[in-house]
Amino acid sequence: MARLPKLTGVGGSEHARWVKFHKHEGLELIYVNKGHCRTMVAGAEEALEAWAGWLHVIPANTLHDQQRMEMSRTTYLTVDTADVRTERWPRLLYLGPESPEARWLCDIPDLARTFSGDGEVIGGLLLALLHKLGARIAARGNGLPVPQSVATAVSFVRDHVAEELTVAAVGRAAGLSGSRMAALFKRHCGCGIIAYQQRLRMDKARRLLQDPYMRVSEAALGCGYRDVNYFIRLFRRRHGVAPTAWRRRGNERRAKAATCT
Predict the structure, then answer these.
(1) Which residues of 110-126 are buried (b: 16+ CB within 10 A; e: fewer)?
(2) Which CATH number describes the domain made up of 157-256?
(3) For residues 26 and 78, is the Cβ–Cβ distance under 8 A?
(4) Is the separation of the CB atoms in 260 and 119 below 8 Å?
(5) What percent of the chain has pLDDT above 90?
(6) How far apart are CA 30 and CA 35, in angstroms?
(7) Which of 57, 91, 154, 207 has its CA 20 to 30 A from that of 140?
């Protein structure tokens, strides 16, 4: 029976500091959620530049650093890849914020906590993620280069997620007209600017609702929705259940995981 990949490290951080040279025994995947990061691999002539939507792929036992060029947020996994071969993977890959690979990668830290005692569940998720990344690399090489304007637009939307935005305003922030910005954003991110903001708001809503003392109306306002009923409709459309039901299910999963540890 083939051995499943194993998660050896997981986390995320938001800061503007330099992470000194280090290495891991397993493959490291560093996804840039926000900002601009520059990674230098020992022995390489050029640094790896990455903005929001990009993935650094650092082979096992490879000495590297990471410099945050501005306030940046990243999600990282270190993985014992088992039987999945990753030696020929490119060290920089554009996923885009709406890709399934990016969503899976960013969900794994929460899932790892939920299923902390079940290595097969996490191993299966990692296997699916690695195969998905491998298929993307095989089909698209190093991925579709993203213009700096799109990276700037993504960061701008993330930084103003709870504010009322227009396509024209995002375009101005990136130095483009609204129509040009909308076309580029759709091509590289797979969705429109406002749809992307809505997805970020729903992601934030899930985080806020983990607080058992936060009312649904407060979570709605924290995500930029003054109309709580509209927020509930959007949340139900996105997640299949109302916010209160989603929170109850999350509490039940966490309680069950706690009893198994």
Answers:
(1) ebbebbeeeeeebbebb
(2) 1.10.10.60
(3) yes
(4) no
(5) 40
(6) 13
(7) 154
